[in-house]
Amino acid sequence: MTLRWLKPAFRKQGAAALVSKHSSIGIAAHDDVPVKPPSGYWRLGERSGSGVSILIERRAVWVNSVLILALVLAGITYLCLGSLTLGPREVISALAGQGDMMTGFMVQELRLPRLIAACLTGGAFALAGILMQTLARNRLATPGIIGIDNGATAFAVASVVGMSVSLAPSAMALTGAVTAAVLTFGLAAGSGTQGYRFIVAGIGVGAVFGAITQLLLARVAIDTANAAYPWTVGSLNARSGGSVQLLGIGLALGFVAALALARSLTVLRFSEATASGLGINTGARRIQILLLSVVLTALAVAVAGPVGMVGLIGPEIARALSTPRHVPVVAATLAGALVMVLADLAGRTLLAPIELPVGIVTAIIGGPWLLWILMRPQRSHA
Amino acid sequence: MNNFRTPPTLATEALDMGYGTRRVIDGLDVMLPSAKVTAIVGPNGCGKSTLLAGLARLHKPDGGNVLLNGEDIQRLPSRQLATQLALLPQEAVAPEGLTVTELIRFGRQPHQGWLRQWSAEDQRVVQHALTAAGLENLADRPIDALSGGQRQRAWIAMTIAQQTPLLLLDEPTSALDLGHQIEVFELVRHLAGHGRTVVMVLHDLASACRYADHLIAMCDGKIIDQGAPATVVTPQLVRKLYQVDCTLLSDPDTGSPLLANVRRATEPA
Fold first, then answer.
1. Domain range holding A154?
2. CA angle A267, A273, A274 (to 5 degrees)
3. CB within 8 Å: B1 and A27
């Protein structure tokens, strides 16, 4: 088809002439033209336009495969290293239920549950992070930075140090996370979730809950405070079995929900007006995304406390590896799990026999990372 | 394909809109002519962008209705509305790194779903949108690397791919130089030539006179006059809208009104 509208003659003929002259232009329907997927995609489905057609981005398949492989390797390393170093073969046979009792106990009862907890919490923090970042259109707006982690922690600590209420930590963490989210969104009301007012409100809410946690710990007996302390820095050492199972179920469901929301998430990166113009019910989607992010954060905090920065680093790695065509929820979850496994591995082994809580390791990596994000020259579209 | 056989009607009925207690649009009734280019003009703060936001359902009215084919748009599902009405907001920004084709593909969003992500129809329409906007040679260029006019054409191409009979544009040329403005306006004329109803908010009266079939002049949330530019635009209207005096000429080529000798009004309007 020619570019008639660009013809120079058009300019002199004026608008009225244009309408009549071009009204006959239509495009012929070429039903026999084979459907080619957009570049960079595989297309699954029928050749005709009426049936099912699913696009799979090649880059995403590649990135996710690499992340899974890295996670498996990191996981085996995690199971090998520790107070007693094992070889990969010993670990694999122990996983299969073979080998000597001692190794089997070490791997299956001590290290494997902790590895699973690391994967689940890392994945949940990072998934919650990329959801909140997309919702706020701001890569600083992770649940950790806008105070939700601290809210969950304060309430979970309250349940442990025996305030009058004593619900299970998961339920208390959820209550705290919801409270912090309501406060942050309430304080930023009117200005929307974009811009610094939202972030500043969140930092304030986080600081208040952080102080409440400290206050609670200061007022109880030293033993009780010691028991609750790991939560306040983030550790995989003090997890309760039930909360890990809850997180496992929550992350499985949340992951499926995030996949279902993926198409909307991709469009929500545009402005509110553009997303709405493209047929996204922005109000409903935003509430769903917010809820999902808050619940995932709360369940992960109930296991490991407010492990900072994983919600920032995981999505950042995923975006760096992925194309800008979509919001990489799968890659972010995998990258978060990988970061958490590596951080806890470092925390367990670097200063052995002293164990560094994983939250301290992620803070040491994450602090400079955050500075780099803030100080890096931004391109025009943030 | 692009001749919309039953043209849609978009109208408002006693529309009140505002922000908090501040009333911006007051009891406005308007009917937008089908398959024509309508320009909404008026001074800053007259409510023209608010009216567009109301027509696109971005902003809920305080009273009255916006009717699409006689139906209240507040009651339409989001996706259904997006197959009838496309919107290009002012200064739209795309996620970093997207190419022209990737942006245009987002226009297919309301026609797609999880199990229907890329049909023969999608492929045809995206190709058509590229061609219609004259962007074939820039198809794989990142949006960030385009000139202002090309970028705006890419955004309009996205709305073309949406295949809606109605297209709303909020100041589509506000940040563009003259050459780029003409690129955009000629594309808009091309779309109206294919049966699309285009409504755009413009703050440049001269462009509105040149490229619109129908002009809606607004002041203080009310419509002062509407109709063909040649009949609506008078020195009195220009003074009322912008507090300037001018001499009106007729364009020797197109017959549309031209504003000459524009100066600040000497006596109050």
1. 117-375
2. 40
3. yes
